[in-house]
Amino acid sequence: MDLSTLWFWLIAALFVGYFVLDGFDFGVGMSLPFLAKDDTDRRVMINTIGPVWDLNETWLIVAGAALFAAFPEWYATMFSGFYLALLLILLALIARGVSFEYRHQRPESRWKAWFDGMIIVGSAVPALLWGVAFANVVRGVPLDADHNYIGTFFDLLNPYALLGGVTTLLLFFTHGALFLALKADGDIRVRARRLAIKSGVITILVAASFLVWTTFAYGSIASALLSAGAAVALIVSFLANLRGKEGWAFALMAATIALAVLSLFASLIPDVMPASNDVANSLTIANASSSPYTLTVMSWTALIAMPLILAYQGWTYWVFRKRVTRSHIEAAAH
Question: What is the pLDDT of residues 164-190, one digit of tens each?
């Protein structure tokens, strides 16, 4: 495997980390109106992700930086062509982050309700638009000979891409509900399990439709196998949740998201961004990558830095491993 192909899969792994980790953050945010009965419930839900949400978001920063350094042509084409969609994602992430920090600054219920609404929208918009963006990358977009996107924003809102967006929205929503069942206690834990069962049925149907469409229209043998693995993991996660096995259900949902993302990347090879109008204009792993020297320096940097990052993140999750309960919130209020 040459360095450009290696970095293609390393970037895939970084996006897997981002979608698995920030995915349940999105799900918790979107679950607020469905699970919280009062402000204490909302604080319990937010506190389950409070110590880790910003750390989870750094995976997106690292993935974007790696994409810029390893595949500058791909980065330039995608970020210019998907500019409005990515801007909406960025604004939503900013609104969500601000809300986490400011909702508790004043006691008025209207103040908190305003920021809770920003958390919900700031979680739902990225969950939807990331699926739309990646589905368009797999489907292909119109590119000129200089690899510039020549379509419009509304060209990105095609049926396949919208189905991809709904799929990621539902996967993250269910992922977040399972995380709450794992991290919260009391009534929220029970309600989160029930919500994950209800959303899980819809998620299985929608995700299966998207994966089948991807496999038959754009897939390869490798992507088909990964898609099949994702489907099996999703179904077993649903069954584990039915049996009250919260840890297994959450882990298998994480595996579902990871395998689904890897299947999308596998369906691209040897391209990184297919041109829907002329295959000669497609960006490939070969013509979009940086020089071998750049990739070599990046490889050594990643070899040193990634174990440290993973160790720190693992330690953080270990420190905050206990369940969050209403009694913790009520005790902190006095």
Answer: 999 999 999 999 999 999 999 889 999
